[in-house]
Design goal:
74% of the residues lie in helices and 1% in strands. It is built from 22 helices and two strands.
């Protein structure tokens, strides 16, 4: 049987992307790239590499996508020229990746370079310009520069209407992107009107299970929650999550975004026990898929820490304030702790604690406290899971700004930690911090 034609493979790969079969799209594209590499570099190779980079991005394999783009753009410039339409599109697609990975300045530079080249080529009222303005607005939205993003988004809608006609689904996609920015600007009435109209169009054109439907449901949930209609918001978030998990997989970054939003909703309704696992799952996704300094990681960590609540103990004991979800999540992590992995878990939680406190008003000393402890020789002295629990409890109480220490007996009783007399627990913990 003769080998498949690389152009046929490439066409099948693009078709697979359209139906969200990204694994198959990548496999087909890799075959196409391999076949095309056997010959002289050509336009088709540039096209195939671009499809490969996009498939990797859609699978949240961002480092691999970045590596392809680093090869791809110089190749396109050499073969086709800097001003070629496909070369400009490569810049545009690389900038989209930069938005997902939080490299906003690099992405903005790529967009502006592509925009300048398009204008130089005389491209004005065309799909390319509408797409560029749409994507520039999306990047500014990602870095929360909503006022900067709005004029780009409106310009995208204006051009697309002229090019495609007001009833085009592409116009609806541009309007939905504008609505996301309007949410950030708290222009909720206009954003809701656009999103409700968009949801009708997307369901009619794409069916009930489609990425655009999921994004629009997520945004409607945000609008309803922000305007006090929380119970109405919940089914929109849940529908968005179900669609994203079906189309993109349970560990996709976009799934993490909706998980975080669901967590915010439950937290706002006083349901921290429901919010905590959603935040934790979102954080796990972000930490696995995104660069360590990505803003989504920081936001999700802050949301976890923001679950701190005031808890009253039963009986005649005094009230005490402590970060209950922090302890709950620690206890959850330690449930399967062994003597071998306890230190790793402890270091991770200490790191999270430090980064959450940094920059928070009134928490500077506490942040420094956790930073110092991360470099402390304590790690050499922690040998067991019980040691790790004692260390965490004592380290929390030693913070200079912790005016209400948590009794060991309280956390031991609440989270089924080993029962130790308070004085004995303190003596055992003290040895970790001795010079």
């Amino acid at each position: 049987m003769p080998p498949a034609d690389p152009l046929t493979l490439l066409a099948e790969s693009k078709a697979a992307i359209k139906v969200y079969d990204h694994e198959r799209a990548l496999a087909l594209c890799e075959q196409s790239v391999a076949a095309l590499r056997a010959g002289e570099p050509c336009y088709a190779l540039v096209n195939a590499l671009l499809t490969q980079a996009d498939a990797l991005r859609l699978l949240s394999r961002y480092d691999e996508s970045e590596a392809v783009f680093q090869e791809l753009l110089p190749l396109a410039e050499r073969l086709l020229g800097e001003g070629n339409a496909l070369t400009r599109f490569v810049m545009n697609c690389w900038a989209i990746l930069c938005k997902y990975t939080g490299r906003f300045d690099q992405g903005a530079a790529l967009y502006q370079r592509s925009l300048a080249l398009a204008q130089k080529a005389g491209v004005h009222d065309r799909h390319e310009m509408a797409t560029l303005y749409h994507n520039i607005a999306g990047l500014e939205h990602a870095r929360k520069e909503y006022a900067v993003a709005e004029p780009y988004a409106r310009r995208s809608v204006e051009i697309r209407r002229r090019v495609s006609g007001p009833d085009s689904v592409d116009v609806t996609a541009d309007e939905a992107a504008l609505a996301s920015i309007l949410i950030g600007l708290k222009k909720y009435d206009e954003a809701e009107e656009i999103n409700r109209r968009a949801l009708t169009v997307f369901e009619r054109e794409h069916g009930p299970v489609h990425y655009e439907v999921a994004v629009t449901c997520n945004n409607l949930g945000t609008i309803l929650q922000s305007t006090g209609r929380v119970e109405e918001a919940l089914p929109y978030y849940e529908r968005a999550l179900a669609i994203k998990e079906k189309l993109q997989g349970a560990d996709h970054v976009d799934v993490g975004i909706t998980l975080n939003n669901l967590g915010l909703l439950h937290q706002s309704q006083g349901r921290p026990e429901m919010a905590a696992p959603l935040y934790q799952r979102a954080l796990d996704i972000f930490e696995a898929k995104l660069p360590a300094d990505h803003p989504n990681i920081e936001v999700c960590r802050e949301n976890l820490e923001g679950l701190a609540v005031t808890t009253s103990t039963n009986g005649n004991q005094d009230q005490m304030t402590f970060a209950r979800p922090f302890w709950e999540l620690w206890n959850l992590a330690m449930a399967d702790a062994t003597d071998e992995n306890a230190v790793t878990l402890l270091q991770k939680f200490a790191s999270i604690r430090q980064h959450l406190l940094e920059g928070r008003s009134g928490c500077g000393k506490s942040a420094q406290h956790w930073k110092r402890l991360r470099g402390h020789t304590v790690w050499k002295r922690v040998k067991t899971a019980d040691d790790a629990r004692l260390w965490l409890w004592h380290a929390h109480n030693l913070s200079e700004e912790n005016t209400e220490p948590v009794p060991y007996s309280h956390v031991a009783a609440q989270f089924s930690w080993p029962e130790i007399v308070e004085d004995e627990a303190r003596k055992r913990a003290d040895r970790f911090f001795q010079a």
